[in-house]
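hi! just following up on the protien thing from before. the input was this:
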Amino acid sequence: MATQKLYAGSKLRELRTRLGHTQKDFAAKLGVSLPYLNQMENNNRPVSTTVVLALAQEFGLDVTELSAGDNERLVSDMREALADPVFAEALPPMADLRLAASNAPALARAFLALHQGYRQMQERLASLDEALGREDARATPSPWEEVRDFFHYCDNYIDAVDRAAERFATAEGAYRNIRVAAVSTLGNCDITVEFADTDRLRHFDPGKRHLTISRRAPPETQTFQLLLQVALIKQDALLEATLDLARFHSGEARAIAKIGLANYFAGAALLPYGPFQEVARTCRHDLEVLAGHFGASIEQVAHRLSTLQRPGAKGIPFFFVRVDQAGTITKRHSATRLQFARFGGACPLWNVHRAFETPGQFLRQLAETPDGVRYISLARDVTKPAGRFGAPLRRFAIALGCEVRHARDLVYADGMDMNRDHAFEPIGISCRICERAKCHQRAVPPLERKLSVDPNLRDVLPYAVD
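and the predicted 3d structure came back as:
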């Protein structure tokens, strides 16, 4: 089998710019000629093995950072944006999208930001009672989506926050009783902690220095909320510095992102990187074993597995998603080539939707996306306990998965027949950009394909995709 050539021009330019080197100096350190470096930076030549070794030796670069993960994500996002009917007459070929993602990623992100602004303007105009006669009736970035994209393009891994959480959790083995460590830390900050019979998960009174945690919440949720408060009190400077670097467009986005970063710290302290990764490898990523070992929930463990992307110590690239009963994606992240739809629901052929039918059970699925990549997907329903009679019960389903090449490291792959093509179910991203011509669950036609309609024929779909 031929080795796949590695084109990483934008990554080379980014590294050189970050180090402050000219092309001449950078070429000398890599041991190549100036014209050769120029060709690599413009993706006219692949990155050679000699250069990869020099990057690792001279600059300590984790060579896995040269992979095309960011490019695939950009291509997926651009394809979804170009599925908008406004581009119906001017759809560029896939080759052009891949060139833009690899050679001009900043331009690709600018295009996505422009389309997002356009889409939000259309949504505002569609609701005239909200838009007409108001001063703020203009297209502005949605704070929630801006924060979601921030974590999305960080691979859902924030190094400084993750390492700070790990230092807190591993200090004198604190993670073995992280709940006590959190309460003790808050007590040292003159904060009184009370577990009360209340619907609110967490309430902090800054004036009285009093923190109230719901006694009705599950133990893992209580611990998580304690650690979140530790982040807001003890790591405020780090959180604010990270927010400064992000440069959000609005105060609302910054406020949402701060809670997101505090949540990130809490999850990383509850499941510290090094110890968590070691146990995950030992038990072959058994979610129940990990949950029991660290006193966490299944959802917390699944989400954490998808964030193990520390340079030099990366775990298996997982995707993680959470959907509600209407199929709306409420959490999403992918360190794999599989990218979720930014808007709307997930593919109905995916096993995550069937998890609601079998509460408390893990569902396994072998799946193949239209690009030919094969995955193993694990799905299960998760219920947020009400805590009292009459309180609303929240139900979701989560899915965690990876490419089948990692199957030997996944306990859930045991006994699955991966040698038969028919064992892999066809799934997609969203109907608008899915290329499958004969999907019996298709909701809308693919915008990149022509349709033919025969009034004398009615098949599974009322049209045929050419």
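Residues 126-139 have pLDDT under 50 and may be disordered.
The CA atoms of residues 291 and 297 lie 6 Å apart.
cheers
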